[in-house]
Every structure is written in structure tokens, then in C-alpha cells.
Amino acid sequence: MNETPQWLSPAEQQAWRAFVRVHQKLSARLGRDLQAHSKLSGADYEILVALTDTPEGRQRFQDLSKTVEWEQSRLSHHIARMCKRGLVAREECAEDGRAAFVVLTPAGRRAIETAAPQHVATVRRLVIDALSPDELAMLEQISNRILDQLDDMSP
């Protein structure tokens, strides 16, 4: 059944395109900044943050995939590259031979601890300082509403 698309109004299209441009430009700028100051990619940083968010610095591969919302194959390839650089290690799961853990290494912990202050300063400069406290609260509210919508529609 082919439904006629409900095209965006000019105002909706302007808002959507502005949102997409912000996302693209901000992601690119943050990625370049991370690479320049810490030799980490945005993807590396995302994985390291996810691992440091757990007290033991480790997550089951499947859980990490859900945390960062990556396909298993993308995560597997990226983790292999990070292992070669010594940022993370892969450990087999003793309870389940089919499962594996991704573990933060001391080098990975040093890398994230070195990168984080500059990254936070860049986030502050590019986003936080550009908004008033009320605008920042509105950004959080809008972002959470969209995230709730996405979570409700997840397969």
C-alpha cells in the first residue's frame, strides 16, 4: 500500500535541515578536534566513554553494541583496530563461550583521560557557551523527547 508522503512544510523543512546541519557540522568539528589533540577518532572516543561509564571498564560485546547503537560487524571491526592500538582488549567470557568482553586497557584509560579535558572544552565552546540556561534546558527537553520517540519505535 503506497501512501502519499506528507511532505514537510517550509517551516518544518527549515527546522529539519538546520538540525541536520548542526548534527553534521558538530560531529565533524568534534571529530577533527579529537583527532588533532588526542589522535582518537570520534568512534574511538565513543567506545572509550562507554567503557569508562562502567565501574570495571568492561562490557559484553553485545551490550556495548547496544550502548553505542552500532551494528555488530561495525563494532567488531572497530574493536579489532582499537585492540591493535592497545586501547582495548577482547576477553572471552568464562560463563558463555559464545560471548566476549571488550575491556578498557591502561593505555585506553590514559587516552580517554588525556582527551576528555580538551573535548569538554570544545563542547563547552561550541555548544554550552552559545546557549542561555533556558535554551540549554530546552535543548535537553527537545533532545529527550526525540530520544523517547526513537526508543518507543525501536524494533
From TrEMBL:
InterPro entries: HTH_MarR-typ (IPR000835), MarR/SlyA-like (IPR039422), WH-like_DNA-bd_sf (IPR036388), WH_DNA-bd_sf (IPR036390)
Alphabetical GO biological process terms: response to stress
Annotated HTH marR-type domain residues: 12-148
GO molecular function, one term: DNA-binding transcription factor activity
Pfam families: HTH_27 (PF13463)
Superkingdom of source: Bacteria
This protein's name: MarR family transcriptional regulator
The organism of origin for this protein: Nonomuraea polychroma
